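Reopening this ticket.

The earlier resolution said the output was attached, but the attachment link was broken on my side. Pasting everything inline this time so it's all in one place.
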Amino acid sequence: MTVAPNADTAATAAAAWADAVPRPFWLDQDVHDVPAPAPSLAWDLTADLLVVGGGFSGLWAALIATEREPDREVMVLEANTVGWAASGRNGGFCAASLTHGYANGAARWPDEIAELERLGRVNLDRIEAAVERHSIDCEFERTGELVLATAPWQLTELAEEARNLGRLGYDVEVLDAGRARARVDSPTYLGGVVMPPDAVAMLHPAKLAWGLREACLRRGVRIFERSAAQRIRRDGDGLRVETEDGSVRARRVAWATGAFPGPLRRLRHYLAPVYDYALMTEPLTGKQLASVGWRGREGLSDAGNQFHYYRLSSDNRILWGGYDVVHHFGGAIRDEFDQRPETFQTLAEHFFATFPQLDGVRFTHSWGGVIDTCSRFSPFFGTAYGGRLAYAAGYTGLGVGATRFGAEVMLDRLAGEETERTRLAMVRGKPVPFPPEPVRSLGIALTLRSTAVADRNDGRRNLWLRVLDRLGLGFDS
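Inline output:
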């Protein structure tokens, strides 16, 4: 979406987010019942399986490990608190796709895209089953998703993707402008497609993380928070992972640290951390919500290269995020990067351009978070230390659902098992590593600038983007 605001609309947008609390809505202890922190690791312990990282990927790995082998001694190390990073800052879109969308997966693994989509649907079903089995109150809703065209060139691409998904068994509905606006009313909508409930669910991401944490604790998993892994070394037939005040010697280690590779240095070649930002409105009144429609509560996104994602919370707030993708030189990650006023201003202006009928609505929360992006836009997997350690990373902003699949891949690899997951070319291969600095940051900056230009140029990709396409490279969130 391209918006050229005048002084009045810019002032209206600025006033709307001026008093927003600068922290993630999902993690705000003034709004939600946040669990008390677990103890820090201050001892030298032993375990059968050590999971490093207390986000979705690590929590799923710990939980599934206890389900596969109930007597296994499992521990989790988390550098901050469970769900603090990407798992507690995302939009709560839980998609079946394991490949950052059908188009990306079909372009990279055309021979197995049908199997990847099947496994993705199975994975989403298993997430729902686990939520029910462990009584996790994470506001899970099988809503589907509405992907909207806000520029004419996007209509053709959406129609083609709908046809391809239909061949794989998805019931995808194509909408013209009138039918799209009948679902959710915005003057910017030119059409869209409806992804069905078997493809996308909505949930409260922090509550999912906290619910998985509680399920792990009930099954005997020991969790240590504020315990950053600082060193890894071989120790007999296992590995010892050391923190500032303690260590864990484990036969096997599942490394699930997202954008924070820590001492597992090989991940740094494949990951480029980027920041994504979001705003959350105050709860809409019944009249305000009726002016928008949105009776199906679908997750929404637009089809641009620089896209927005947005959804309703359980109390009818609108989370509005995306568009800007920000990479800092050298892949720097700092607390101060979580707030970016220029992006919040852009988001607010685009919000009111999309929903002018919500003029006067205010934003209560503003936040950013870092994403573990990679050059193929989808997770990658591997092992280290002679198979004693397995890792999964690179979810590139679509990991709420795919992290559970990644956890199973890590456990399969650690067990030395060949499964329907480990046989996949997607799982066996790796993304192309990013080049060293300063070429890395310069290339990322050029790519981001080129994608923005493509949106303003009817989707036409310049020479730089076409070269990246031919090489199977990319950069996204």
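Reporter confirms the inline version is readable. The first strand starts at residue 44 and ends at 52. DSSP finds 13 helices and 18 strands in the chain.
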